[in-house]
C-alpha cells in the first residue's frame, strides 16, 4: 500500500518526531544538543515555524510547532536535518545516514491536545528514567515555560497565555499541569498519531480539518470521500 503523504496544514498545530537510524544516538554530548537547538532556532525564524515546545532525547526528538505556510515545515525540517547530519558526521568522524527515514508528524486539535502534548514532551525524560522530575532535564522546553530560563527558539501558543493573567500565574498553572501528568490514553494517542500520520482531535475538529485537504486525516474514514452534488 502506498505511503500516506504527511499532513501539512499551515496555521495548524503539528506534533513532529524524528528518530535516529536503528535507534542510534543522535546526541553524544552537550555540544551536540546545543548545536541542534541553534539550528532549530535559526531555521524556525528563517522558514516561519513557531516552535511551542521541544524535547531532545539521546536517539530522537519531538517538536510541537505551528507552520505559517504550506512549505514552512518541510523546508524547516529538511534544512535542520541536513545541516545537523553534516555537523554530526564531521565532528564524530562518521559517514552515512543519521535519521530513521523521514520525520513523522501530524496535526493536533490545540484546545484538546496542546497542553497535553507539551506535558507529554516534558515528561519524556522522566518516562525514560533519565531524571526524576521534568525540571531536572536540561534539553527540553520545560524550564522556559516555568520561567527558569529564556529561549529565543520558543513561541508561546495562545492557549499557554490563557493559563493566567501574569507570567507567575501561567508558570504556576503549567507546573501544576505537568506535575499532574497525562493519562495513559492521551500518551498512547499522541505517540500513535504522530507515528501513523493520522490527525488527532474531537470529531467536529476532524470533520472541519478534512475540508482543508484531500488526504484522509484519520483511519476511521473508509474508502473515497463522497462525490459532491449540486
Gist of the model:
The chain has 230 residues and is of the alpha+beta class. It has helices at 30-47, 72-92, 110-127, 142-145, 158-161, 167-180, 184-196, 203-210, and strands at residues 13-19, 49-56, 60-67, 104-108. Helix 1 packs antiparallel against helix 2 (72-92).
Kindly describe this structure:
This protein is an alpha+beta fold and 230 residues long. Helix content is 43%, strand content 12%. The chain has eight helices and four strands; from the N terminus they run βαββαβαααααα. A four-stranded antiparallel sheet has the order 2-3-1-4, sandwiched between helices. α1 (30-47) runs antiparallel to α2. Mean pLDDT is 93; it is low at 221-230.
In order across it, which strands form the biggest sheet? 2-3-1-4
* Number of alpha- plus pi-helical segments: 8
Q: Percentage of helical residues?
A: 40-55%
Largest sheet: 4 strands, antiparallel
Q: Overall pLDDT, averaged? A: 93
State the end-to-end CA separation.
33 Å
Q: What structural class do the secondary elements suggest?
A: alpha+beta
> How many strand segments?
4
**Secondary-structure element pattern, one letter each:** EHEEHEHHHHHH
Question: Which regions contain 5 or more consecutive residues with pLDDT less than 50?
Answer: 221-230
The dominant shape is: globular
Please state roughly what percent of the residues sit in beta strands, choosing from under 5%, 5-15%, 15-25%, 25-35%, 35-45% or over 45%.
5-15%
**CA radius of gyration:** 18 Å
Amino acid at each position: 500500500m502506498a505511503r500516506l503523504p504527511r499532513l501539512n496544514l499551515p496555521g495548524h498545530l503539528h506534533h513532529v518526531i524524528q528518530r535516529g537510524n536503528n535507534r542510534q544516538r543522535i546526541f553524544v554530548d552537550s555540544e551536540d544538543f546545543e548545536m541542534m537547538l541553534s539550528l532549530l532556532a535559526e531555521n524556525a525564524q528563517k522558514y516561519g515555524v513557531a516552535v511551542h515546545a521541544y524535547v531532545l532525547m539521546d536517539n530522537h526528538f519531538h517538536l510541537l510547532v505551528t507552520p505559517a505556510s504550506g512549505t514552512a515545515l518541510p523546508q524547516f525540517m529538511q534544512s535542520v536535518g541536513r545541516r545537523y547530519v553534516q555537523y554530526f558526521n564531521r565532528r564524530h568522524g562518521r559517514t552515512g545516514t543519521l535519521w530513521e527515514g523521514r520525520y513523522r508528524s501530524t496535526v493536533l486539535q490545540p484546545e484538546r491536545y496542546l497542553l497535553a502534548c507539551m506535558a507529554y514532551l516534558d515528561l519524556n525524560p522522566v518516562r525514560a528514567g533519565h531524571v526524576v522530575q521534568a525540571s531536572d532535564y536540561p534539553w527540553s522546553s520545560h524550564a522556559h515555560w516555568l520561567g527558569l530560563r529564556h529561549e529565543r527558539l520558543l513561541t508561546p501558543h495562545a492557549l499557554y497565555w490563557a493559563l493566567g493573567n501574569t507570567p507567575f500565574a501561567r508558570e504556576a498553572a503549567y507546573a501544576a499541569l505537568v506535575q499532574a501528568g497525562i493519562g495513559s490514553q492521551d500518551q498512547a494517542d499522541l505517540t500513535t498519531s504522530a507515528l501513523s500520520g493520522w490527525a488527532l482531535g474531537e470529531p467536529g475538529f476532524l470533520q472541519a480539518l478534512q475540508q482543508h485537504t484531500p488526504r484522509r486525516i484519520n483511519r476511521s474514514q473508509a474508502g473515497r470521500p463522497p462525490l459532491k452534488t449540486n
